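RECORD TYPE: inverse folding
INPUT: structure tokens
STRUCTURE:
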């Protein structure tokens, strides 16, 4: 059912829906309300939402609120969750199309390691009546949503292979706190992206740590496991990542942006078309090329501030050529003893997911009105520092 006059309603209306849906009303610290208040006008004024888009955006906001209500309730019932010791070994932060998904899943699948699973990112809080350690209702909900996405974007699997139980990006959890690039990756909201960049983002990472405590408590197979996080969106707030997860190695996958930008713009064009009838390739590129450059700029700035401490570099060609070797190097840098069992676990993942290497998803810069020399210029500082002559 579409919203009246094609507008996402105000926060109070959406909050009331979430409370009605859950029978709960305690959101804990409501710091994220300011994010919602910045987001709604951008959705209504910039995103050119279709009726389906208005429904989708409203549901996205409500779903985040519902998860928050259920999470706060879970912590109240089980305060021992806050005693869980979460250890983050590595945070993979390469730009899209740089091998970061492959590296993340390979590392998180190794014995003794873990990552957030896709079904958990959709609903990080247990459903009502769900038994601890039996998330089947949430797995079923995730399966239904993934089927819908695949029906809508048939080439999604060639862009970002998905499986409800595979490790995926906690970007989606941060998105439910209205604090990640997931939102600008789903809706064309440049004003909101700017607002997010300019406002403090440390609190969402403190909340993410608490959500990881909850996920660890929910699933005892994670006892004493070390976490591997991953999303290019962390580049927006690496200073906050380092503050909240000081023990983690920041793992940057490197590949020439000139080779990856068209493919990423194509994916964004597909995603925007799910929620808008008026999307053109040029405006997608006009937002995303400078945005990706900005993320790299922030990466280089924070890296400079800490003099490279805790950073590990992985080149795309090396990762494809010797995935186990690169995975071993990253884990050892993170202080993990790489046993034969760990190597075998990584090798098993590579063997089971070979199709990821092939990625038939290919697009040209010209498809997006981009000129190679301009793109090279935009990414010149990063290319000079990390790619050229290496």
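DESIGNED SEQUENCE:
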């Amino acid at each position: 059912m579409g919203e009246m006059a094609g507008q996402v309603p105000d926060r109070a209306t959406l909050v009331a829906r979430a409370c009605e849906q859950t029978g709960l009303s305690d959101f804990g610290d409501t710091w994220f309300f300011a994010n919602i208040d910045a987001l709604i006008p951008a959705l209504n004024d910039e995103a050119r939402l279709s009726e389906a888009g208005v429904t989708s955006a409203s549901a996205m906001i409500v779903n985040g609120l519902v998860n928050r209500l259920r999470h706060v309730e879970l912590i109240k019932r089980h305060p021992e969750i806050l005693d869980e010791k979460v250890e983050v070994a590595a945070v993979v932060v390469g730009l899209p199309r740089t091998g970061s998904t492959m590296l993340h899943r390979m590392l998180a699948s190794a014995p003794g390691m873990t990552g957030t699973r896709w079904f958990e990112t959709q609903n990080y809080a247990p459903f009502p009546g769900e038994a601890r350690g039996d998330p089947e209702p949430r797995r079923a909900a995730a399966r239904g949503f993934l089927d819908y996405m695949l029906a809508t974007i048939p080439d999604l699997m060639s862009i970002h292979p998905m499986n409800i139980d595979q490790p995926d990006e906690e970007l989606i959890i941060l998105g439910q706190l209205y604090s990640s690039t997931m939102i600008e990756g789903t809706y064309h909201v440049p004003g909101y992206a700017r607002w997010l960049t300019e406002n403090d983002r440390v609190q969402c990472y403190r909340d993410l740590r608490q959500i990881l405590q909850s996920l660890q408590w929910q699933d005892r197979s994670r006892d004493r496991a070390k976490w591997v996080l991953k999303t290019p969106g962390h580049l927006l707030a690496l200073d906050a990542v380092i503050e909240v997860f000081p023990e983690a190695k920041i793992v940057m996958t490197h590949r020439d942006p000139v080779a990856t930008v068209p493919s990423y713009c194509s994916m964004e064009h597909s995603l925007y078309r799910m929620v808008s009838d008026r999307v053109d390739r040029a405006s997608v590129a006009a937002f995303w090329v400078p945005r990706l450059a900005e993320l790299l700029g922030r990466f280089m700035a924070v890296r400079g501030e800490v003099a490279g401490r805790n950073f590990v570099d992985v080149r795309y060609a090396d990762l494809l050529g010797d995935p186990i070797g690169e995975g071993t190097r990253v884990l050892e840098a993170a202080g993990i003893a790489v046993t034969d069992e760990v190597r075998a676990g990584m090798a098993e993942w590579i063997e089971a997911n070979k199709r990821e290497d092939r990625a038939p998803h290919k697009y040209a810069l010209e498809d997006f009105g981009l000129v190679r020399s301009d793109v090279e210029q935009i990414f010149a500082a990063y290319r000079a520092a990390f790619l050229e002559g290496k």
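NOTES: Residues 1-5 have pLDDT under 50 and may be disordered.
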